[in-house]
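Hi Q.,

Before the meeting this afternoon, I wanted you to have the NDP prediction in hand. No need to reply - just skim if you have a minute. The sequence and ligand are here:
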Amino acid sequence: MAHILVTGGSRGIGAAVVRKFASAGDRVSFTYHTREDAANALARETGALAIRADNASPEEISRAVKVATDVYGGVDILVNNAGISASRLFTDITTEEWREMFAVHVEGAFHYSRSVLPYMIHEKNGNIINISSMWGITGGSCEVHYSAAKAALIGMTRALAKELGPSRIRVNCVAPGVIDTEMNGALSDEDMDALREETPLGRIGTPEEIAETVWFLTTRGADFITGQVISPNGGILI
Ligand code: NDP
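Predicted structure with the ligand bound:
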């Protein structure tokens, strides 16, 4: 059974990924930032290992990977999922907000990937899945810093996939459309209705559907897939 490390596993999409792999019998560790209550409840429910670590802190990331590997051994599957979002006019984005967006999404994925790779390279086996967003593909108005960080993850995925292919490590991106999680909690009912209407399948996606895509990327059926961006989005990007 594989050891899968999920960043930002306490809620939403990350929690669905934790549940999916834990129910399959894998060794699952996950990080969270502030919601200790949610993290502990999920750990009790699934048997997964919860570790507090800020994605914006290289030191906390090193410690988290050490704790996870001490308990479950080297990481076979890394899911860079932790994320934050914010709606701001571009001209209102502060330098701190810009840096935080990149620190959490891009630098976090960089530090986690770098920390788990020596083991994967040694094993000549591994799987890194970065959770981007449809806004990283199309760009989202009033979310320039979020869109730019998510686009950077796509670039990182493609370049890393080329570099790591010879070590038989696959790197892919999942770029979801609109998913029903707390991240979208600030959107009004009218906004959500408009997004549903824009989506050919006529609904918002579920965290479980994104977990299924992540799962697929770890199966034998995906053995020849690397450097790709898969966007489960109900057709909103067609
Ligand atoms: P949620 O807000 O529901 O959950 C976010 C998760 O990330 C939580 O576990 C949270 O931990 C963790 N997190 C946030 N900041 C940090 C940090 N600094 N360090 C460590 N962990 C952190 O979001 P979603 O489940 O919706 O989003 C998951 C990923 O999917 C994100 O990368 C997001 O950008 C992406 N995405 C989401 C979409 C959507 O419509 N929901 C669409 C496209 C992409 P804690 O519980 O402790 O706060």
